[in-house]
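U., I forgot to send this yesterday:
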Amino acid sequence: MQPRKHEETKKHTKKKNKFSVLAVLLLAVACHAPDSSKGTASGLAAPSALTIAVIPKGTSHVFWQSIHAGANQAAQELGVTVIWRGPLREDDRDAQVSEVEGFISRGVSGIVLAPLDESALVAPVAEAKRHGIPVVIFDSGLKGDDYVSFVATDNVKGGRIAGDRLAGVMGGKGKVVLLRYAEGHDSTAKREQGFLDALKAHPAIEVVSSNQYGGADVEGFYKKAEALLSRYKKPDGTLGIDGLFCSNESGTFAMNRVLHDNGWTGKVRFVGFDASPNLVGALDAGDLDGLVVQDPVRMGYLGVKTMVAHIRGEPVEKVIDTGAELATRENRNQPGMKARLEPDLSKWLK
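Result:
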């Protein structure tokens, strides 16, 4: 029986040696493997180690889909992972706060955030910073200074572009209605401010309403827009105003529907903000006198690129302006403008 026992001992020794060699190899790999749980600005991190959370205000509008495409493009070029997650509604502050808190608990490398509210997201962003997670803010501003960079349109300038356009097509005189978007949204508030500032240069233009909010819900905006315009309805059914401005995609869409459904299309000058297939169609049809368009693909791209640069220890600008331009029927087919109005997102959204 002794030889058999000796043979078993030899087999056990061989197995033990194999496991020992394997353990050494695994230990060696582990010692050289990058930590994918987080990235910090103090040192270089391998691209595959970085996971960037991108949190928009909402996910349904074409604007946010374009942001998503830009973020995905940057992720592919830089070799990082992007997680895209945001609230369904652009007025659900609690949902967005929960998203930020969830990504902090998850320990992502960085957060790229479009704050739904310039105040409500201050505390969650500060909490991310305390946990060593850098934050890049995009689209809408945030109070405080607990973020790395702000990547956005110069919204005051964008509003001025809209005001100048509306004043121009109105001949510098007449009555104007501004139906604001939603309270607490920094980006649209600045556009509305810029719009009103531009009209101050035209004393013959009277702003008859500028303190009403349509809200983040399209149907709610539609009802408030219809009720507001009904105040200026004359006995013959026409409107006693000459110009309109709405400061974002959903508001412009809802207002355009109100004009169409009530037979007011083309009877009042109308300038909107942002682009979608529906709004571009309205521009082509002459229902809109202009659209101030941003570059959301570039915004999403630069949001992620700026975050990755910061994590890798590269200097980044505190404010990055992604630009805004006026689209009209006359310039909409120019190559640069066409790309903004009709971006091909299919390559990056699958």
